[in-house]
Amino acid sequence: MKKKVKEQENNFISDDNKNIEREENNRLHHSKIAMNICIASILVNAALTAFKIVAGILGNSFAMISDAIHSASDVFSTLIVMVGVKIAAKKADREHPFGHERFECVAAIILAIMLGVTGAMIGINGIERIVDGSYKEVSLPTYLALSAAIVSIVVKEIMFWVTNFYAKKINSGALKADAWHHRSDALSSIGSFIGILFSMLGFPIMDSIAAIAISLMILKAAISVFKESIDKMTDSACDKKTEREIKEIIIAVDGVLGIDSVKTRKFGDRLYVEAEISLDGTLSLFDAHKIADNVHDEIEYKFPTVKHCVVHTNPKNTEEEASPETENREKDMTNSKD
Questions:
Q1: How many CB atoms are closer than 10 A to CB 233?
Q2: Chain-centre distance for alpha carbon 69
Q3: Which pLDDT band, with edges at 50, 70 and 90, does 161 fall under?
């Protein structure tokens, strides 16, 4: 009997070690992907910023110079993302026993604030130029500025799709925020293109109006990133679809008689799950623990974003008929599947 108990204890320890090792490998892999994307982003944005500044000055376009400032801000924002991702990838320690994932949210919040300030400055500058009439003193934009806007639109849209793809792949909020920086830059370049084109057609005020439109797009992106990051910092629950899928996984595990409750909370870009399940009250402690362990492993295996899962077991008298509360809960489960 003692030998059997010892074997079961060793199996539990072995499973825990495997989970820790898997978590460590995923963390390092995700950090490496994010860093590679950030380095590529910095190089492309630096080159694009220099190109836009030259095109804006030589092409007589205030909108293109404003666009260049936005691209330059992308370089600094990506550096912040790199710092956040690097810290978030650190192992849990005594001061942070649950890990450092929320530092990535902190990076995203700082990034959103920077984005908002940049947008506000561009908008204010554009308004001042219209109010004081200084837009009339600038020479009309040339085809160089117009060509630069087209190049910027294409390059930044490609960067958005690539960065957003990997952000979804590794579930990185900071990288997603950086992707939307690229998208907002592409949108601002569209505004620059329209402003430059109309200015060349004899409406120079449109160059400043385009700068204001650019600022509004940037501010909208900043608010969106800020709100999403705050949600992740305040332990909000996951979406209903994910919660329903978790329940379906739990009820499918052999030995689970019912689900008493499932609670989820976001921790940075990861997810914590707390579940209470009903088991046969006559089971031994080891058998009940084994079923709970199976539920735990199934959830973490099928949901890589789950950082930790706690499963509590409640005894159930299988000889008694199901209570109305249990029947209602099972009906809700059936309806949710439909």
A1: 17
A2: 25
A3: very high
71, 152 contact by CB (below 8 A): yes
Task: Reply yes or no on whether the pLDDT at 171 is more than 80.
Answer: no
Closest by CA position to 138, among listed 72, 191, 66? 66
Cα gap 64→210, rounded to integer Å: 10
Give dist(CA 238, CA 299) in Å, integer.
Answer: 14
- The half-sphere exposure of 229 on its side-chain side, counting CA atoms within 13 A, is 28
What fold does the segment set 240-337 form as a domain? Answer: Alpha-Beta Plaits (3.30.70)
Q: Residue 65 corresponds to which tokens in the numbers above?
A: 């110079």
Q: Where are the domains of the chain?
A: 2-233, 240-337
Q: Would you state the structure tokens that stand for residue 171, as one six-digit string?
A: 């579930």
**pLDDT for 55-96, tens place per residue?**
888 877 776 777 787 777 778 778 888 888 777 777 777 777
Contact at 8 Å (CB) between 77 and 184?
no
What is the DSSP secondary structure assignment for residue 93, as one 8-state letter? -
Q: Are 114 and 73 in contact (CB under 8 A)?
A: yes
Nearest to residue 78, comparing CAs of 34, 38, 48, 118?
38
Token pair listed for 84: 């956040």
205-232 burial by CB neighbour count: b if 16+ within 10 A, else e? ebbbbbbbbbbebbbbbbeebbebbeeb
In contact, 97 and 228? CB cutoff 8 Å: no
Measured CA to CA, the distance from residue 265 to residue 271 in angstroms comes to: 6
Q: Which CATH class is domain 2-233?
A: mainly alpha
Global pTM reads: 0.62
Query: Can you list the alpha helix ranges (DSSP code H) found in the chain?
Result: 2-58, 62-88, 102-132, 143-170, 173-200, 205-233, 240-252, 285-302, 324-337
User: Length of the chain in residues, anyone?
Assistant: 338
CA distance 61 to 155: 20
